[in-house]
Amino acid sequence: MGELQDLFADLRGAVRQERVINAAVVDVEPGEHGDAFLILGERHATAGEPLRLKARLRAGGSASAETLLNREVVIQIRTGLRYGFGRDPRVRAEIVEVLDIAAEPIEAILGRDETLRQIRADRLPHGPTTWHEPQNLRRVVMIASERGEAFGDVQRVLSPFVQGGALDIIFVPAIFEGPSAERSLTEACVKAEAACAGYDAQSVTLLVRGGGPQAAFAPLDAAGVVHAALQLPNLVVGVGHAATPETALDVIAARSVATPTAAAVLVRDLLETCAERAARALAELDAAIEEQIEVPARSLLALVGREFDAAVDLCLLEAESRLAEVGRGLEAGLMSTVAALSPAAPGPRAIVEPGPVLAHATTDSEVHPTLFEETPEGPAFVTTAAAVHPDALLTILLPDGSVTVRVEYVLVIRPAST
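The chain above was modelled as a monomer; its predicted structure follows.
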């Protein structure tokens, strides 16, 4: 286990070194004895707070502080750890030699930093937190130059979706370079915002341009352009190429990609994701219909079939009962008709004395009498002796008329066998 002073000694050794760096001189502070302190910053703005380092420039060197102000420089710098009693340790930097000075001032870098600082100070929503992924992407509004290659790069990637009717692209032309670039880009952002009206959650705005010199991207750092772009839903910025410095629009965009083609690919991936999500939703809907409608419907149809079969069976039974009743009615009517057509009316009831019945042979000329029994269901033919029972009411049809008799008792005499 070491002591605190050992830790500081290690830190001092780690920080004490010389190296060559690229930086931008964003400010100058006067020092003692003709020395000056240069406030060094990054050459290109980043999404976080800008980095700053104060480095001493001793008097009498090859370049004065005034010459270096607002320029990009290549310098050899020596660093170390400085601390004193009651003060926190600080990094001490000293410029050993100025190796190169950019010919153009870095006013754009300072303007970019100021624009981003103001946005953060005003707490304006910006960056990835403003991205709301569309669930059903229908419209893309593209801000691009009419003469650049960026428009064609995007079209090549997204044209199949446009031709298939899955996507609507609204082109808003803008000027990206020259004195009128800032005004043109601001107006284009306003038009793009209007084109997205009604599609906010289901739209994406592309701001794309090809590569070029660093100075050509200065309009993308302008405060007016940045504030107008903050109003665009789901802003995707794809400017330049992989080595293009980051602009203020890259920082405030919901999505920032390296090239216009990468921006188009991002939109293509969104469309494919939306299609997959729609396919899953359709499958879930089919399953819900199967579960909630088709299965109960099949069960209900089976129940209806069973009820129909039962109803048919009941109808058949009723029909059979009705046919039997009709048959009995027809039979009774026939018997009544036969009785009515007999030539002799039924006479008074005669008392018949039973006597022996002698078996004798019959001839073809003999006619057997026809017997009917009155039953609750109507007259019934009597064809066997076994069917006659006491108290039965019989109607006997004879050649010369019909006789109705009541059976007092039954004596069955069977003919003797020969």
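Residues 123-274 form a domain with the Rossmann fold fold (CATH 3.40.50).
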